[in-house]
Amino acid sequence: MNRVILLISFSLLTFTLFAAGPGNVSSGLMMWLDANALSLSDNDPVPSWTDRSGNSKHAVQDTVGMQPLYKTNIINGKPAIVFDGTDDYLGFDGNIIVNTNYSIFTVVRRNATGPSNNFYIGGTNPTSNNNLHVGWRSNNTLTHDHYGNGYDLRVPSYSSGATASIYCYRHSSTEGKDVYINGGHRASNMNNAIISGTPTRRYPLQSYQGASLGRYFGTNFKSYFNGYMAEIIIYNRYVNETERRAIESYLANKYNISIGSVGGADHYTNMIEFSVTSAAPTNSRLTGGLTITGNWVSGGTGRIRGGHNNANGMGTSSNPDPITYPNFQRLNRQWFMEFTSSNITADFSFDLEILTPDINPAGDKYRLLYRSDTKDNFSVLALSPTVNGKIVSFTGASITAVSSSGFYTLGTLDGEESTLPVELSSFLGVITPSNNVRLEWITQSETAVQGYYLYRGTQNELSGAQLISPLIHAANNPGMTHYSWTDEELTELGTYWYWLQSLDLDGSFQFHGPISVVYSQGQSPTPEVPLVTGITSTYPNPFNPSVTIAYSLKEQGDAQLTIYNLKGQVVKEFSLPQAKSGAGSLIWDAANQPSGAYLLMFKAGNTIETKKITLSK
Fold first, then answer.
1. Residues 366, 485 within the same domain
2. pLDDT greater at residue 41 or residue 163
3. From residue 436, how far is each of 297, 350, 433 by CA, in Å?
4. Distance (Å, rounded) from C-alpha 369 to C-alpha 328?
5. Residue by residue, what is the 3-state secondary structure of 14-33?
6. Phi, psi for residue 257 in degrees, rounded to 5
7. Does residue 557 sit in helix, strand or coil?
8. Which of 146, 184, 451, 513 could pair with 473 as two cysteines, CB 3.0-4.6 Å apart?
9. What is the pLDDT of residues 453-491, one digit of tens each?
10. For 578-591, what is each residue's pLDDT tens digit?
């Protein structure tokens, strides 16, 4: 009787030890392979890797020549199972994660750059959603795949000095698939994502034949893993963030592996998914204050998927370079973006009215920030911003499939509003004697400015305004410069609003205004001073093939008239050295030019006037 009681007590004790689980996470634990728990000697073959979960899901190999070896003191004094990359593998019961969510934790290191498709977990059924495989698809590409339903992520190339890492792979029918390396969020599979709050089922493994550690079957090849594994932990559920960190901390302490302190918050808020093709070359979506636009370049379909972590406010963590950027700040909100094609470019536009309404952006110190891993610092992408009200945009980012997937956010390098390239002292509009609207602006200084555009609207809303001028080239004078442009296209009476856009050489821009002008043909406008510097008339307009351009000079001096096409190319120049004050005229014969609009720019002293003319053949 006492013997029976003793056996029962021992069984309960053993169950209690197993049930604790790694990191005290036991719910859903299906298989736990720990090389440290094996009673083997150095270089012993491993016919069976004993399962510590209590479920007897051992990984086995009956063929002696295909058994991997047990090695002591491989990872900071801990043992590991070494696979030779030729024919070693251990089979296990893949049914433990069939038709269910799952989480897999591994402590693994590879020992060579190749071969390609160097997977350390695999199966033998090369059909979609019937073969889980994880490992290296190439020297610097890691994968988490269900044979056609997964994703790749870019990782550092193999180095002989590299140490083992902690990998976490999770799959959920509602949360999708993701991967963490040494505690840092590295990738998320957005396929069949939650769009507009409607969950779509993500495919689980439908079957898993020939589940193995160290071997994988593809359509036309067989791959064996060259490296070692110290621990494999599998759950039949998607462990939550707290549990994931607990298991990773357990493994990090055990193997003395450094893990990131930055957690991987949920990046599935406001998820988006869209494509760009040759038939629809531009497409965009808004998610959490970021509008991302894909622009088709070549090839087939480009696809963008993403979401954000729903964080608010500004912070200073993950500074790209604290010495270089001591006043660095960034949005706490970050967006995970997955790009599945290299055939596109991407534009990022951050709406600070949504994200940080108390900030008034200005200047060129804003930067698009990127990192592949949440435990790493951000890097500054070599893109200059454009600022339009509270919209900070970056255009034309080249996208490389896999390696461009990662985490993006907006930062500022100086922590404050920056000095604008244009110092504008006035912007006004007046009615001319010919009943047009003459727009004038004066800059006190200009630095690296490409030029100006003018916009007109029938309401005080920039979003509804239309572009009315070609690019008016800037003089970039260190002192005062006077510009003017005449709007000759008004036909309806009423109040009009005008905005001036200054465009910098680096692609950034700012809007000035608006100013309002009441347009009424019956009014008696205040006459202009008869003698001013600028273009007084163009006749006829439209013209064919020649046009007379009348001008006046308030004072004697050098003047120049330059004619541009709408591509910004110079088609004709007239030089007027030491022209006398008063009225004058020039004739341009455009017989050799194509029909279309042209821009006249008249420069004299600190005055620049522009005017649009139209050649109609």
1. no
2. 41
3. 42, 38, 7
4. 12
5. HHHHHHHCHHHCCCCEEEEE
6. -110, 130
7. strand
8. 451
9. 999 988 877 777 888 988 888 887 767 788 888 898 888
10. 888 877 778 888 88
Beta strands in 190-289 (DSSP E): 212-213, 215-217, 222-224, 226-235, 269-276, 282-287
Q: How far apart are CA 108 and CA 165, in angstroms?
A: 6
Structure tokens at 349: 């536009």
Q: Which two tokens stand for residue 420?
A: 């604008």
- Same domain for 429 and 401, yes or no, is no
Q: How many helices (H) and strands (E) does the chain have?
A: 3, 47
Q: Given the structure tokens 């988006």, which residue do they identify? A: 272
What domain count does the chain have?
4
What is the torsional sign of CA 131, 132, 136, 138?
A: positive
**pTM beyond 0.85, yes or no:** no
If asked whether residues 43 and 168 sit together in one domain, one would say yes
Domain termination residue (choose one: 473, 495, 519): 519
- 231 & 344 share domain: no
Tokens 């792979």 belong to 169
Co-location of 408 and 427 in the same domain: no
3-class DSSP state of 206: coil
Distance CA 431, CA 527 (A): 9
Distance (Å, whole) CA 137 – CA 427: 60
Give the Å distances, CA to CA, from 150 to 140, 342, 575.
17, 18, 65
Question: Would you list the DSSP string of 69-104?
Answer: EEEEEEETTEEEEEEESSS--EE--GGGGTTS-EEE
Does residue 1 lie within any of the structural domains? Answer: no
Between strands 481-487 and 607-615, the pairing is parallel
